[in-house]
Structures are given as structure tokens and as C-alpha cells.
Amino acid sequence: MAGSDPLAHQGLAIVVMGVSGCGKSTVAAMLAEALGCSFIEADDYHSQANKAKMSEGIPLSDADRAPWLESLRDAIRDRLDGGEDVAVSCSALQLRYRDVLRAADRGYEPGEYAACRVRFVCLRASAEVIAERMLRRSTEGKHFMPASLLRSQLDLLQIDATEGVTEFDATTARPGDIVRDAVALFREELASTVPS
């Protein structure tokens, strides 16, 4: 159809990223609910070996991460290829990890971040706040990631300004406010129609 936007019916993946304990699973699940789309929890794609390694306080290597990121990329691609929006919770701490996920968009050219159908929202909080959250979750048996791995995650986290990653302070902003702002930010790119 002449004059129509070729991206109008393509899905958009919004990856809520950050270190363990920043609130990404909570925010991504709420975002999926607000958009009426599916939710992908990256932790569900880790192998048992990866989960065992992390629960013993051993950081993952890039070799450990590769099959995890590739299976997550494939799950995101399935949604995008179907014209669906999807909210994803994933640490995605480094550019090279985010680029694996960006490849879920079959049209993605490395470095062409603005045109990519996989977008990132990073939740930040102080190390003290995150350590307290991680310790609480760990003692309650709610997560396999011990607080002892926080330093390695904070050391890995890097975002290049050219990527266009939106950042929120997860210490002061409530999850509902982050979701509202993320929906407003991406509204024009979403396949779904979200009321204003």
C-alpha cells in the first residue's frame, strides 16, 4: 500500500535490563501486562549447569552465556516474526550480549541501534540497595543468584551512549511509573495499540 509505514505491523521487543536484583523481572512482567503481550524471563533460558554455577557464586563465562543468549534471541525472534510485541527481562550487561539479542530483528545491522526492533531499558540502583534485595531473595529461596555475584555484574555492566538505551533509577522510581514511561517512550513503535 503506497504511503504506509512498513514497520507499522512489526513487533517490538523491549528488554528490561540490569544487574540481578534491580527489578527487571517485576518491571518487564508489568510491561507485558500493560501492553497485552508476552513476557520472556531470560532466567528460564539458562541451563541447569549455568544456574548451578551461579548459585555456587561462580560468575558465568562468555562460553556459558553464548547458548543462553542465542536461545533467548530465538525466542524473541519468534515473537517479532509473528508481528508481536514482547517484554523481556534479561541482564544484557554488555554491548556484545545486547547485540546477540538485537539479532532477533532479522533486519538489524550492527551499530544501527535506532532502526532495531529490539530496544533496551536499563534499571539502575545503588549497589547497597541491590545487595539488600539480592540477599533477601536468596535467603527466601526466591532466586539462584547470590549477592556475592553482584560485584562481578556491576563490573560487567557497560552501556555506550550511542546505543540509545533508556535508563531509569530503580531506587526512586516505582515499577508502575517506569512501565508508564516506557510505554509512552515506545508507543509509536509498538505493534499493539495501547491507550494513552
UniProtKB/TrEMBL annotation:
<dbReference type="Pfam" id="PF13671">
    <property type="entry name" value="AAA_33"/>
</dbReference>
<keyword id="KW-0418">Kinase</keyword>
<dbReference type="GO" id="GO:0005524">
    <property type="term" value="F:ATP binding"/>
</dbReference>
<comment type="pathway">
    <text>Carbohydrate acid metabolism; D-gluconate degradation.</text>
</comment>
<comment type="similarity">
    <text>Belongs to the gluconokinase GntK/GntV family.</text>
</comment>
<dbReference type="GO" id="GO:0005737">
    <property type="term" value="C:cytoplasm"/>
</dbReference>
<dbReference type="InterPro" id="IPR027417">
    <property type="entry name" value="P-loop_NTPase"/>
</dbReference>
<keyword id="KW-0067">ATP-binding</keyword>
<dbReference type="GO" id="GO:0046316">
    <property type="term" value="F:gluconokinase activity"/>
</dbReference>
<protein>
    <recommendedName>
        <fullName>Gluconokinase</fullName>
        <ecNumber>2.7.1.12</ecNumber>
    </recommendedName>
</protein>
<keyword id="KW-0547">Nucleotide-binding</keyword>
<dbReference type="InterPro" id="IPR006001">
    <property type="entry name" value="Therm_gnt_kin"/>
</dbReference>
<keyword id="KW-0808">Transferase</keyword>
<dbReference type="GO" id="GO:0005975">
    <property type="term" value="P:carbohydrate metabolic process"/>
</dbReference>
